[in-house]
Amino acid sequence: MKQREPISTGSEWTFELIQKYDEEIARVAAHYGLDTYPNQIEVITSEQMMDAYSSVGMPLNYNHWSFGKQFVSTEQQYKRGQMGLAYEIVINSNPCISYLMEENTMTMQALVIAHACYGHNSFFKGNYLFRTWTDASAIIDYLLFAKNYIAKCEERHGVDAVEQVLDSCHALMNYGVNRYLRPQPITPEEEKNRLEEREEYIQRHLNRLWNTIPKKEEVQESESPRFPKDPEENLLYFIEKNAPLLEPWQRELVRIVRKIAQYYYPQRQTQVMNEGWACFWHYTLLNHLHNEGLVTDGFIMEFLHSHTSVVFQPPFDAPYFNGINPYALGFGMMQDIRRICEYPTKEDRKWFPDIAGSDWNKTLQHAMRNYKDESFILQYLSPRMIRELKLFTITDNSTLSTLQITAIHDDSGYQKVREDLAASYNIGNREPNIQIYNVNVRGDRSLTLRHYMHNQQPLGEDTEEVLKHIHRLWGFEVHLESVSPEGSIIDEHHCPLRPQTEEVA
Amino acid sequence: MSYIIDRRLNAKKKSTVNRQRFLRRYKKHIKRAVEDAVNTRSIRDIDQGGQVSIPTKDISEPVFHHGNGGVRERVFPGNKDFVVGDEIKRPEGGGGGSGQGQASNQGEGEDEFTFQINQEEFLNFMFEDLELPNMIKKQLRDATSFEVRRAGFTSVGSPDKLNVVRSLRAANARRIALSGKERRQIRELKKEIKTLEGLLPNHDAVLQIAALNVEIKALNKRIKRMPFIDEFDLKYNNLIRTPVPSSKAVMFCVMDVSGSMTQSIKDIAKRFFILLYLFLTRSYKKIEVVFVRHHTHAKEVDEEEFFYSRETGGTIVSSALNLSADIIRDRYPPDDWNIYVAQASDGDNWDGDSHHCRELLEQRILPLVQYFAYVEITTGPHQNLWLEYEQIREKFGETFAMQTIIEPADIYPVFRKLFEKKE
Asked: What's the total number of domains in chain A?
């Protein structure tokens, strides 16, 4: 490869240099076939970075106290030096917006450009979850619509009334997605146009549901069909469409929170892959530039310094251990897949007959496009990675007095470790599976939720609080039953609280 | 193609609204935290800032999550010597059971959500709607400290302030003004001489010129006779004294430490003093605090001793008032200092002394101070000290205030009452 003059030698950045680096990185990224949205690179101050942090990384968002709380705590930690600010924030939008902090050195800016503008960006554009669940070209407009709408509601109905509804919706934010039904993308213009239409429709629809004149008890209670017919996993959707007492504007707030929750849904499921992909590409792209002589040795040393601290995995007994570092796991796996493709060992050929020796770039692209964390780990975590990270499984059975080591990095353990690790990224395991089970349409309008227990894990102590929020939205009694896989009811929660003595029908 | 945009000049403080909402929502908590701070910190440290802690559970946003229990399998990195089948002890407090799901970004295991409110906010939470009585009056009208400033010139004054330039200029002007008629005549005579000179060597003309010259001489003589300087010309520099608002304050904390004062009464008193101190810090750049404690004798002490050392004995309030008055006289001339006195007591006093206290206050203290606040911390009936003070309140309503505190919760309302805005 012919050696060229370095782009820059100092650590100070300028807009011209950023432009030049971006052009070179774009050239190399295209060489590797990365498909990205156009980039919009914005230089901001650390203060603005804190602002961005606290509105969940969004350039604009509606006002809510919880964002203020986030801001206050970020500010506090930053000032105390407990936390550095992230070098970058990148937004899944089209064009893809990335923030660079002005305090960064030129090397860091180049790292961020490679990481965010080409790594994350191509992931947003390529991964199936993002393609299905988010509409990159519409999100900014939708947020603007949401912000204005909520501001208008605050004017009309008061900040407190709006805040109450938002609080309740936030409590259910993780239950605002239909995991198996894919949404149709809608543009914000349509959204606005259909707003009134929808309000009217829902009111009519509701009235039909609730106005059913109660017939005499000719039908046995047990025979009356359940509503909804099948359990509904999207609690926010169900409330938006069916809660009897909500005003139209309150329904719209529920919808806004649900839409935004849906936008974050892919991010929650692809953290390891997304970060691993971005780290892999900043590493590959910048090393490529170094090989070409476009960046200096000093540059690459500074880069490696921050790179290695980002992808470091502390062991479980280290004082600063905080779970498995998604950057470390993701980057390690991406590198490992490339290795399996380029220099497969006998073990690799046995475990990964399909990809050992294949074209690494195609294989990685395929993995990036078609997997989420859970399936990615299940498919690609190699014995070698397990050995490198020295992974082991602890089984915590609350009926036993001790914890068991049930698998380690050896022949008999690889499979189990891999499955356990993959399972821990399954949202269905991580969060309690709670669905709408029944509404007492003809009687007291009470709402019954069911918690389908996983591995006999009970609900945490926030449950009563969340039920209060559901009760606020629903307006009538709310019941929650924890159900074992065999179908028997193990535990119950009620809101408002029931007297202990009463028998539950 | 990428767009590179410089956003650094865009609006900062985007989060201000959200932050305000947060503070507003947790106003009660923050107020409580502020009041706790009042209780525990040293008087002088209080205004250092506003670390506010709120129990995390009060501000958490609840979501459904798994509780402890059931079976879970978790994968960890960094195995050193575990092999399959090893059993290890469950970590204390069920810590091994939680931690799944979203990692908390507030930091796990912290029971308190701690953040900073700035001093301004901190104090605002303490002193909503309050205003120091008489303070504005003090600054505008009643100020007793002066600065000498030049204010033009006057025609009366002492010789040391004589302004020579101005005086001579005035004299010159006077001479010019008063000699106008003579000099006009001289000018006319000179003109005549000139025309006559045209007629020379006419004999008549020669005679006339001589006569005119004599006339001019006489006029010049009259001009010369005008005084070079007159008393009327004298100008003096005018210096006036302008009042300067004093920016220094001294606060006297006077407390009874006799046997009847329990620790809880002292705690209440401390909080009252803190409030006063904080309030003064908002108005004055420099504040000194003098602690005077007394039983039968009064003594000036440091803060630690003031609040925490125990002594017993009878009670003679006037000893403390005497000492305070002496300290004011010796160290805090009222011209330079704004003087505030806060006295806390349980109301006990030796019977014969209360009358003496009233005299002391009326003669030696109240004329000098901005404000004298007396709080009586008692559940019992008022005694003679209170009755004497009530008489003072009638006479000195502007600068003297008194209140009863029964339990800690009363402090704040009482403080507000003492210092409420007076129209």
From this structure: 3
